[in-house]
Design a protein that fits this description.
Elements lengths: L1 E2 L3 E5 L2 E5 L2 E2 L8 H7 L1 E4 L4 E4 L16
Antiparallel strand pairs: 1-4, 2-3, 5-6
């Protein structure tokens, strides 16, 4: 499998960069990317939605090991 350089991923107005694995012609967005974009999966409507807790911009929490 090949690995790309960092690529820009933009979805629903949210952006992040990520390396990608090259496997065929399909595109698969994983959980890590969704978390970085702060998007949720709406299974009923089969679409991605911004996190209702902060819909205007992605928020990432960093936990500290005490």
């Amino acid at each position: 499998m090949g690995v790309t350089e960092a690529i820009l991923i933009e979805c629903e107005g949210h952006r992040t960069t990520e390396d990608a694995l090259v496997v065929g012609n399909g595109i698969l967005i994983g959980q890590v990317v969704l978390e970085k974009l702060d998007l949720l999966v709406d299974c009923r409507q089969q679409k991605l939605i911004p996190n209702p807790a902060h819909p205007d911009y992605p928020v990432t929490y960093i936990l500290s090991a005490a």
